Amino acid sequence: MSVATSMRAKRAGRPRSDKFRQRFEMGVLSVPALIMFIGFVILPVIMAAYYGFYKWKGFGKPDVNGQFVGFDNYRIILSDPSFQQALGHTLFIAVMSLIIQGPLAILFALLLNQKFKGRGLIRTLIFVPYVVSEVIIGTGWSLMLQPNGAVNAVLKNLGLQGVDWIANPKIAIWTLMFIISWKYIGFAVILMIAGMQAIPEELYEAARVDGAGFWRQQWSITLPLLAPTIRMWAFMSIIGSLQLFDLVYIIWGQYVSSTAGTSTMATYMVREGRLANNYGYGSAVAVVIFIISLVIALTYQRFVLNRDLAGATEQRERKQYERRAKKRERERMAESEIEAAIVPNNASMEVSAS
Amino acid sequence: MRVKSVFAAVVAAATVVGVSACGGGSGTNADGKTEVVVWMNSTTGDGKKFWDDAAAAFEAKHQNVDIKIEAIQNEDMDGKLQTALQDPSSAPDMFLARGGQKLRDVVEAGQVMDLTDKISDQVKTQMKTALDTTTVDGKVYGVPQSVLPGGIWYSKDLFKKAGINETPKTWDEFADAVKKLKDAGITPIALGGKDAWPAAHWYYWFALRECSQSAFDEASSDLKFTNECWVKAGDDVKNLIDLDGFNDGFLTTSAQQGASSSAGLLANHMAAMELMGGWEPGVVRDLTPDKKDMADLGYFAFPEMEGGEGDPTAILAGADSMSIGAWAPQEAVDFLNFISEKEWQEKYAEAFVTIPAAKNAQSAVKNEALQQVLKVYDQASSVSLWLDTVFGQNVGNALNEGVVNMMAGKGNADDIVKGIEAAASKG
């Protein structure tokens, strides 16, 4: 701080150093953020990569108490049926989340974008599950979905035969899908409503004058103009699915998620790393998750999200367009780097922090 | 601006100081007393009080020692310990350890003290049997506080209601009892499959009955389950499933948490029996409606399997032990010897409703079911540790999950062995 103050004193005499001073202050002020980022994101990722080359029990130091095995851990991970299953479940959840939540969220948003009594209340209600913590939701649903829980009691009163919603391996993953959809749809709806409100009302008026009905208006105006919002939401949804851990861990506990067919990459990592005391192997799993998430995130950005950026530059003069496109390319690179760093770091931290 | 700068500087400085202050650990404290930090897993009730009382009594005798008892939630214990042990300044001087491969890992990392020449005569003579669980390569690395033999715990009232007058001694009698309970509309067996190990205990017991002692011990040490008896144990599990005696949704039922857990089902007379270790009376007590001892709780030994090569009196058991960190002061060892004395072992038995490790304190066991356990324990031809403890968490978990899979209708006895081999390659 005293350095910054003395810089301020100097400035009075030398206006030219203004820019330098500004840069210097930016540097100083970003130090805490940098320390956090390097200490809790970059460093754990590097450490996980390092540990991943060892068979190590977590006691002592890997190079002393562990055994260097090169890429052996990675070979075992990729050939482990449990990991393949977990990966399959994760991808299933990612795809099904898009298929189930997307259309539903748009329909809900259409409804909640109309003017009617109690709209605020319903908007709030649909958003509530998103706000409540995963642990509470997991505990609540797992109690209600027990074979003799509330859900089956209601079904029984309706004269229907209930099933074992969470323990039956054929049903469990669909139960999980239901809970995920119920919890996260509020977030999608809020995003969609915000997107819809940005669409100018005049377009609908014009369409009505041309004789377009309600659904025709939605199909030809709302959906195309909502597309950037949908693409952004889908990106967040995919990332959320790749990281899914807490709900599964709460409902199915530490050991039976693979038996019930609901294991995810993250539960596999915790199960094989922390719970099995194989910190070396677990770190290697973290690295694999990191790479899978990175590839998916970058691919999505490259092929889907870049449309939004390209569309905005269409009408500009050619020279200006090219210059800006170059600049955008750079920004996008930086962005995706940040994105990539943000996406899987939870996963890798899980192991190194514990 | 200036005020803000000063404020920010103060905050920054405070953070730095605060962070460094976290690294407490052991050593000498401000009063010049030697500090001994103890990590145990009783966060509530009589168990916590036992440790506080013991610390106070020891401090009264040794004025220059400050015993710091820290209660760690059981489920958090392993993870926290693992991290803390990396650095002697943050590590406890004395901590809960359960023997087996896990203790071996800590020993190999040089983080635990060799107590062979430091334990008192009381420990050496009265805890001789239990000391096996904390002995690695002939050296003692911990002192057991309680022994926890397994067996079947049941509700006498529900057995009576179903017309079962004598506890089953053989598998056929057991199957018959299950059928009678079902006919009476009672859930026969509570099982907490969510935690995996309660399901796996069935498999361990079947193996103990089917395998000869040498075959059992061999597999425990070399992880090769080639003997025919392991397949037979798998078949026994299948027969057990065919009895269809478990509570509904056992796969997602936890073992000890709340009234809907398997122990809770037994405590509230929603199920008639449960296969569990010697901690059951204490666990069940916390889950009864009035939080008092379950009045009609009974115990019988695991039934005999016809044609099995194992000794029908052999039992499986666990032990809760305390180990000392390699860096700990002599006072920590003194405290461990202190609580292993007859007086404190008796108090331990009362506080935890369990069987104390010291033979001369076992007369303090008043619980009727536990007295039954003690009888079985004293007559046992051999006492083996739970297989998952023997194998450590890596292979142990794989074994447990293999059994759970089988019980859920996925896979068979061969898959259990395959899972074990796969796990061994990871660690």
Automatic annotation (TrEMBL), chain A:
Q: Which residues form the ABC transmembrane type-1 domain?
A: 87-300
Q: Which domain of life is it from?
A: Bacteria
Q: Any idea where this protein resides?
A: Cell membrane
Q: What is its main location?
A: membrane
What sections of the protein cross the membrane?
26-53, 91-112, 124-144, 171-194, 233-252, 279-300
**InterPro entries linked to this entry:** ABC_transporter_permease, MetI-like, MetI-like_sf
GO BP terms: transmembrane transport
Q: Which family does it belong to?
A: Belongs to the binding-protein-dependent transport system permease family.
Q: Which PANTHER family match?
A: ABC TRANSPORTER PERMEASE PROTEIN (PTHR30193), INNER MEMBRANE ABC TRANSPORTER PERMEASE PROTEIN YCJO (PTHR30193:SF37)
Could you tell me what this protein is called? Sugar ABC transporter permease
Species this chain originates from: Bifidobacterium choerinum
From TrEMBL, chain B:
Which N-terminal stretch is annotated as signal sequence? Answer: 1-21
**Record-linked SUPFAM superfamilies:** Periplasmic binding protein-like II
Q: What is this protein called?
A: Sugar ABC transporter substrate-binding protein
Q: Locate the coiled-coil region(s) and give their ranges.
A: none
| Source species | Bifidobacterium choerinum
Task: Give UniProt keywords alphabetically.
Answer: Signal
Specify whether S-adenosyl-L-methionine is a keyword of the entry: no
Q: Does the keyword RNA-binding apply?
A: no
